[in-house]
Amino acid sequence: MFDIRIQRTTQPKVKPTDDSKLGFGKIFSDHMLLIDYQEGKGWYDPRVIPHGPLSLDPASSVLHYGQEIFEGAKLYRTKDGYNLFRIRDNFERMNQSAARMGMATMPIELYMESLLALLALDKDWTPHKEGTSLYIRPTMIATDSCLGVSAANNYLYYVILSPSGAYYASGLAPVAIYVEDQLVRAVRGGVGFAKTGGNYAASILAGIKAKHEGYAQVMWLDGVEQRYIEEVGAMNMMFVYENRKVVTPALNGSILAGITRDSAMKLARHMGLEVEERQMDIHELIADAKQGKVTEAFGTGTAAVVSPVNLIGYQGERVPIGDGNIGTVTQKLYDTLTGIQTGKVEDTFGWITRI
Ligand SMILES: *Cc1c(COP(=O)(O)O)cnc(C)c1O
User: Residue 206 phi/psi, 5° resolution?
Assistant: First the structure.
């Protein structure tokens, strides 16, 4: 048990009334959670206070050298309460990101208890419409006021909550993705497996290129040979071969180990499909797709859960995947995962925390 200070807002905001106009990450709930860290003292003063601006010295190390990590999770409304999905895994991963970035780790129980304290106040900010959720953004930043490049002695952990709309406003829909063969996102030995801000800063230019060419997302290749498939923006990639085998790039240190990725693999195996994690050569994939062997492709991530892909653009060629529609494996994984998250499908895996 941790002593979490609660300061309720005296000016509760008006909650959005139209769940179809929420968008993503633009509206925030009434409160936020903050916990400070100081080297030698550890984590101290966990508190839930009104959501509002942080006060930071302009010399704060996060603003200069990017010592920052984050997580992304969702609170789902069920018929009689709320569900969190594999939330402990998010916090385990946050500690792995922290370790890689030379930042302070935090006991999982403190992550859990403090989040529950925040949700106790703001869970009713969760929208109602199907496909919507309360997005949870745990973040950790280095707060030393010092321009020297070294691990900070002070960190701030905070969590903000954002009621978010359905990822697919008009139902699950396939997207086209652009394979980036010039710019790279991460290299082995770097920070690709950590959820740290710099990885996303490095990805933005390619995103602009992809949008310009009419693609929804960027698919990254490995940073050394630019030949092996890594992942997409904030999603891991899966390819269905001949309707029965799911193939996904193996975790190699530069790919983020998605919780949705792991869940989709477990579910696929449970559904009797073969699942293979291996190095995937983009040339092989393109050749296999042209021969009709790749029957489906989809991305996995907390935001979209499962995102069907029906076209891959590589070196000026536009290669269709499957028949252009949402594949049966993709649809079934989407339905089952979202069903478990919202309490409509029984959770036989122990993934749900009910609150
Ligand atoms: C968050 C993220 C994912 C997906 O992870 P989930 O745990 O499934 O949400 C995949 N790739 C990157 C780069 C990410 O940041």
Answer: -65, -35
Determine which residue's CA is closest to atom 1 belonging to ligand 1.
234
**Tokens at 320, concatenated:** 């269709």
pLDDT band at 167 (very low <50, low <70, confident <90, very high): confident
> Residues enclosing ligand 1, CB less than 6 A?
72, 195, 231, 234-236, 256, 258-261, 300-302
Give me the DSSP letters along 144-179.
Answer: -B--S-S--SEEEEEEEEEEE--SSTTS---EEEEE
Mean pLDDT of the chain: 96
Rounded distance, CA 309 to CA 196, Å? 26
Q: Give the DSSP H or E segment for 92.
A: helix 87-100
Q: Show the domains of the chain with their CATH numbers.
A: 5-164 (3.30.470.10), 175-341 (3.20.10.10)
* Residue with CA at minimum distance from ligand 1 atom 12: 234
pTM of the model: 0.97
Q: Which ligand 1 atom sits nearest the alpha carbon of residue 93? A: 7
The CA 233 to ligand 1 mean position distance, Å, reads 8
Tokens 């949870």, residue located: 136
The full DSSP string for 20-76 is: GG--SS----SEEEEEEEETTTEEEEEEEEES------TTBHHHHH--EEE--EEEE
Q: Rounded mean pLDDT of 224-235?
A: 96
Residue having the nearest C-alpha atom to atom 5 of ligand 1 = 258
Q: Which residues 6+ apart lie within 8 Å of 278 measured at CB?
A: 247, 249, 250
Confidence of residue 10 (pLDDT cuts 50, 70, 90): very high
Residue nearest to atom 2 of ligand 1 (CA): 234
* Amino acid making up residue 30: D
